[in-house]
Structure formats: structure tokens, C-alpha cells
Write a structure and sequence with these properties.
Number of strands: 0
Oligomer: single chain
Largest sheet: none
Number of helices: 9
Strand content: under 5%
CATH superfamily of the largest domain: AhpD-like
CATH architecture of the largest domain: Up-down Bundle
Radius of gyration: 17 Å
Structural class: mainly alpha
CATH topology of the largest domain: AhpD-like
Length: 184
Amino acid sequence: MARIPLDPPRGILVRIAQWYSRRTYGKVLDPVLAMGHHPRLMVGYARFEQSLSRWNKLDQDLKALALMASSASIGCAWCLDFGYWESRRQGMDHRRLHEVPTWRESDVYTPLERDVMEYAEAMTATPPTVDDALVDRLREQLGEPAVVELTAMVAVENLRSRINSALGLTSQGFKDSCEVPARG
């Protein structure tokens, strides 16, 4: 249950954000409703998120795995739900997404993907536990621009996940819309 009411004052900025969210995602995102209590923050955050979408030095699948590994470490159900849905929309295999929380035991990931998720978890730990050997492997495989982008994206996901978790935002059922019903 959300720790802040998801019924912000209905000013013009909140109405625009709700319209955009409904048009883009099919429903109004709970983080939008929560941030609607502080319209100036909501607008600044939206501009920030818009600029992130233009970053392109890191492979999208690697980025998705890193974001979900960070979300899983923090325990942000909303972020995992939305991340799964968004990555499925972009064509990522559902098994690779579903097994992110248990990636260490899974056999579906490449060594590079494992390094990326290890890095995301190490960055997310408090305090961070990133080691030089892991960064060297990532630099060798991805290049410096992609490692910098990976680092920034994991930091951003920490921001998102910690906001959403602290505000008590939980799954909105995005993942459910991706699931193929079992044949009975």
C-alpha cells in the first residue's frame, strides 16, 4: 500500500503528466501520481528521465538486466514489474527477465551479462562493493563510454527504486499483461 495518497492535486501539470502516462503506458504510473504532490519535482524528474532515453553507449538488454538486478537488490516490486514489461515490449526473452532475482543460479546468462548484474548489485550495496577486477573486465568488454553509462544507469535505478520503495509503491500489474496464459 502506498505511503502517500495517489490522488495528487489536479493542477494542469499533473493532468498533462497523467495524460502522457496513460497515452504512453496504458495507465497512469503510480510514481507519477506520487510525484504529482510536488509538480516542480515531477517536471524536473520527467525532463531527467527524458534525457536518459537518449543515452546509447550501452546495449539495451545489458542496461535492462543491470536495472532489474539493482531493483531486485533494493526490493522494488514496482520497478521489477515495470522493468519486466518494458523489456518484454522491446523483445527481450521473458526467461532472462524472470530469472534476474536469482541470476547467480540461472544458466541463461552469458559471462558478460553476469558481470553487468554483479556490477549492478555491487553498486547498489551500502556501501558499494565494486572491485577493480570487475570494472577492468567490463571496460575490456564494453569500453569506457558504456561502463560510464552503466554506472550512471545503475545509480539512476537506485534513485528510482529507493523513491518507489520508500513511498510504498508496488506492482501495477504490468508484468501480468506480458504473461502468456498457460494452456489448460
